[in-house]
Amino acid sequence: MLKQFNQALSQKEKSLKQLYVLINELGPISKSDLIVHTGLTQTTCSRLIEELIDLHLIIENGFGESSGGRKPHLYEIKADTHHLFGIDISRTYTKVLLMDLRFNIKAEARLKMDKTSTPDVTIHFIEEKIKDMLREHRLETRDILGVGIGAIGPLDRQRGMILNPVDFPSPGWVDVPINDILSERLGFDVVIDYGVNTALLAEYKNELFKSYKNVVYVIKGVGNRSSIILDGRLARGSDKLGMYGQGHMVVDIHGRKCICGGYGCVHAYSSMSAIKKDVIDSLKLGKDSILNDWINNIEDIQFEDICQAVNENDPLCCQIIKDAGYYAGVGLSNLITVLQPDLVILSGPTYTHMDLFYDTVTELASKRSKVIYPDHTITFSKGNLGENATAIGAGGMVLSYFLE
Ligand SMILES: [Zn+2]
Fold this sequence. Notes:
Blueprint: H1 11-26, E1 29-30, H2 31-38, H3 42-54, E2 58-63, E3 73-77, E4 83-89, E5 93-100, E6 105-112, H4 119-136, E7 144-151, E8 155-156, E9 161-162, H5 178-186, E10 190-194, H6 195-204, E11 215-220, E12 224-230, E13 233-235, H7 266-270, H8 272-284, H9 291-294, H10 303-311, H11 315-339, E14 343-347, H12 349-352, H13 355-372, E15 379-381, H14 389-403
Parallel strand pairs: 4-7, 7-10, 11-14, 14-15
Antiparallel strand pairs: 1-3, 2-3, 4-5, 5-6, 8-9, 11-12, 12-13
The chain binds zinc ion.
């Protein structure tokens, strides 16, 4: 039945769907609250609830507060009526999550992206992991609601294509019709959106964040991606925009040359590759660092080594991270000045692996916003879902596809 909810519906099916959507959003919820939200009569609401229970779409779960008489039954969606897959394709890893309808993670797989991670290799990995998970959890094709992908842009969401992302570690990522390929091989509905959008929507479901109306979400890793909620709704720019994006906001007009061809972009100072280059250049100049003891060949230094050095208070790496954080903080301050968010979530390896970077950026952005908007308070957070946010949100997109 759930899979039919996105097709042409009879009046009765529309009422069932309306009730299911409400129970999904607000559950556990009592019948009387459902009546308040829908305007249904007591008899009709009771009948529809019975029908949703018979269809194995909802269950009774506990009792609510009594308003005099008996405590009312509470209803919530049945989490294992179907399962769904959420996929995160980023420049550093591809992740596959199997989840139930309440986004409890049942299985996960991760592929580190490197120069061998062509579209063929990556899609084959996704396909095989999905088949493995189906086998291990004894699920059939009919048990799966669909596959959601959160990916690096630019995308053609309508046609389900990854267009031409820059800075991908492997070649071949040009006009990849990933939705059609996966749908053909697996037999599921596949939907795609920008990974930063799905991550923000996943975090925004959290009770802690729901009350914020304007939210800026940033993922900082190889690139710098951001997504925005304005007045409680995801704000979308045009689809299929260029390859670069928000990391190419200029923070120094006389600054460094950037990969986009411009000068002084945030990316040129605070991307993982920019930080790595600064560290390697400094070591080549003979500067002292704990990294000299750890690594034989300077060129072999990985971003993870720098994170570890920073977390062990290596003075050189700490200074480079503070400088990079300064430019990222100026960029974030500009976003805050324009968008006036009340919540800023900073995610991605650069923020989550190094408190020093996160602290430098938030301190600067916070001070700057106090100057521009003295009466406005901004909450900064690293989010609650960590690396899984994009894939969880991609799964959420599948459920929304059937319920909207
Ligand atoms: Zn640039």
